[in-house]
Design brief:
The complex is a heterodimer of chains A (113) and B (110).
Chain A lengths: L4 E3 L2 E4 L5 E6 L6 E8 L3 E9 L2 E5 L6 E5 L5 E5 L8 E8 L8 E2 L3 E5 L1
Parallel strand pairs in A: 2-11
Antiparallel strand pairs in A: 1-3, 3-8, 4-5, 4-9, 5-6, 7-8, 9-10, 9-11
Chain B lengths: L3 E3 L4 E4 L4 E7 L6 E7 L6 E6 L3 E5 L2 E6 L4 E6 L8 E9 L3 E4 L3 E6 L1
Parallel strand pairs in B: 2-11
Antiparallel strand pairs in B: 1-3, 3-8, 4-5, 4-9, 6-7, 7-8, 9-10, 9-11
Classes of the chains: A mainly beta (113), B mainly beta (110).
C-alpha cells in the first residue's frame, strides 16, 4: 500500500513569490491535513480537507490556502512568501474520523530567501 | 492553555532502561490518543494509539491512558540508542481535529 506522497521534497523561493505544494494521500483516505513544522513552534495545524471541502482550519493568515480534488489529492498554496514561512510542510492523511491516526508524508522543506 | 502538553525534555536514559514519556490534554471530548516518533530531519511516524482507559502493549512499547486524569503516557522498555528521537503526543477530538504536543526529546545513552 503506497504511503502519503508529497512533492516536491525541497524548494527554495524568494520573498514575495508564491508556492504550491502537492500531496497524494493513502488510497482510500479522504481526509488530508497540512501542518507547518519549525524548530521553535513544533507542529502547527494549517487546515484539513475532507471530500473536497475544508473541514477544519488553523490560525494562519489568508496567504495560506489549500484545496482538495475529487481523487483526494490536495494542494497547498502560499502567496507573497515571507522569510518566516521557511519550514517543513507536512501533509497527513487519515480515515474519515481519524481512526488509526495520521500517516504523514515525507514533507516539503521550503526555504525562503 | 494548550490542548496538549508534554515535557519538552530533553530526557536521557541509559541503554536498557525504561523511558517514560508523559502527556496531558485539556479537551474531555478527546476520543483517541496517539504517540508519534520523529527522527531529526524526518516526518513523524505513528508508533502507538490507544482509545480506552488502561494499558496497551506493543513489543517494547506500552501506552497508558487515564481519561479521568486526562493523562497519556508512553513507556519504552529496554531502551535502545535507536529509540533516540522526539516523541509527539496527539489527541483526536470529534470532527477529526488532531492536536499535537510540542514533543519530548529522548536520548538513549549507550
Amino acid at each position: 500500500k503506497a504511503g502519503v506522497t508529497q512533492t516536491p521534497r525541497y524548494l527554495i523561493k524568494t520573498r514575495g513569490q508564491q508556492v504550491t505544494l502537492s500531496c497524494s494521500p493513502i488510497s482510500g483516505h479522504r481526509s488530508v491535513s497540512w501542518y507547518q513544522q519549525t524548530p521553535g513552534q513544533g507542529l502547527q495545524f494549517l487546515f484539513e480537507y475532507f471530500s473536497e471541502t475544508q473541514r477544519n482550519k488553523g490560525n494562519f493568515p489568508g496567504r495560506f490556502s489549500g484545496r482538495q480534488f475529487s481523487n483526494s489529492r490536495s494542494e497547498m498554496n502560499v502567496s507573497t512568501l515571507e522569510l518566516g514561512d521557511s519550514a517543513l510542510y507536512l501533509c497527513a492523511s487519515s480515515g474519515d474520523r481519524g481512526e488509526g491516526g495520521y500517516t504523514f508524508g515525507s514533507g516539503t522543506r521550503l526555504t525562503v530567501v | 492553555q494548550k490542548e496538549v502538553e508534554q515535557n519538552s525534555g530533553p530526557l536521557s536514559v541509559p541503554e536498557g532502561a525504561i523511558a517514560s514519556l508523559n502527556c496531558t490534554y485539556s479537551d474531555r471530548g478527546s476520543q483517541s490518543f496517539f504517540w508519534y516518533r520523529q527522527y531529526s530531519g524526518k516526518s513523524p511516524e505513528l508508533i502507538m494509539f490507544i482509545y480506552s482507559n488502561g494499558d496497551k502493549e506493543d513489543g517494547r512499547f506500552t501506552a497508558q491512558l487515564n481519561k479521568a486524569s486526562q493523562y497519556v503516557s508512553l513507556l519504552i522498555r529496554d531502551s535502545q540508542p535507536s529509540d533516540s528521537a522526539t516523541y509527539l503526543c496527539a489527541v483526536n477530538i470529534p470532527g477529526n481535529q488532531f492536536y499535537f504536543g510540542t514533543g519530548t526529546s529522548l536520548t538513549v545513552i549507550p
